[in-house]
Amino acid sequence: MLSPLQGIRVLGLEQYMSAPYCTMLLADAGAEVIKIERPGSGDPRRSIPPFARGEGGAQKAGGFMAYNRNKKSLALNLRSPEGRDVFRELAAQSDVVVENLRPGASAKLGFDYEDIKELNPRLVYAAISGFGRMPGFSGPYSDRPAFDIVAEAMSGMMNLVGFEDKPPAWTIYGLADVYSGMCTAYGIMLALFMREKTGAGQFVDSAMLDNMLALNERMVALYSVTGHSPQRGRLRHLFPRGAFRCSDGYLALNVPDDTVWKRLCTAMGRDDLIADARSASGTARAEHANELQPIIEIWLQDKTRAQAGDLLNASGVPAGPVYSAEDVFADAHVAARKMLQPVQDPEVGEYRFARSPVLLSAVHQHEAAPAPALGEHTREILGDVLGYPMERIAALEQQQVVQSVAA
Length: 407
Known about the structure:
- The chain is built from 18 helices and 14 strands.
- It is an alpha/beta fold.
- It has two domains: 275 residues, Crotonobetainyl-coa:carnitine coa-transferase, domain 1 (Rossmann fold); 82 residues, formyl-coa transferase, domain 3 (2-Layer Sandwich).
- It has a seven-stranded mixed beta sheet, with helices on both faces. Strands 9-10-11 form a three-stranded antiparallel beta sheet, with helices on one face. A two-stranded antiparallel sheet has the order 3-4.
């Protein structure tokens, strides 16, 4: 069965999370993704725990396994002139380059977009950075490096996570990286679609700060319309929203309007709260949250998360249990959706990782190939893609321009 990106070749000048997650999405959709790695050490995520361990002492980093499935590894020394020549030859025969190197690094190596488009005008070149690199859109932070937590902080998102009397908190590890990877994959698809019309590639600029600010659109809209900055841990116009204790854990509950509030009151047997001045509107409920929260939790205290969730959903009040990782892996709906895709690794065995989230009706979900060993596909790429004879490949290995698993 045809895959959406079958026949598309992607070069990943990538490390850590954002670009690897982007190219993983492309690889899951059928693209040939060639991951460019430094000989000897490879992607730094290869050495970051936790590790999956196999027989005979083999080990692989779990995060690397998760975001590098379905890819090929080319161990290439880009600090050598010969290595840079190999990269340019590959770029001339590829459709997409994705990179998340430190700002300025690709220019120093001699293959930023302006350099590479001369070799391949059809190339789509996507750069992920903390603060953006598009000419004409540079700002005072454009040359700064960034990790995910920096983008969370500066987008205003971190200021909204946690409680009023506690410091700001981060959301989940790597959120800005993963979301930026998704946004970049979307930008690449737009550029490829546009190439079908124009025949030309283009530069795709993906800034982690921009991506997180767009994700934090509610803060932007509220401040733009009201002039008020949302507060951490408290909503001015909405209650209840949050995690409420049941007998076996917590239930997530959101009441966005008065219609859903009426349904919740009826489900709890508290129709008296529908017209009560303290709870008749979202603003009133927010002002009296300290009085209303105990009422909801007393109603929930003798119910399990499943019992309360079933009752509320049947009443038209969307609710769901607050899951741990163990709960997610045991959930029947997650299993029915095949969200946790098994990946069989020849060294450390089978593990399950989250599949690409969007399903297409005309695309069959293929088995996932495991994350590659460092340099596993070096000889294949140099021979099959670039047509190098084995003697030349062996010479490059001896000169430490490339590294192969078999070398």
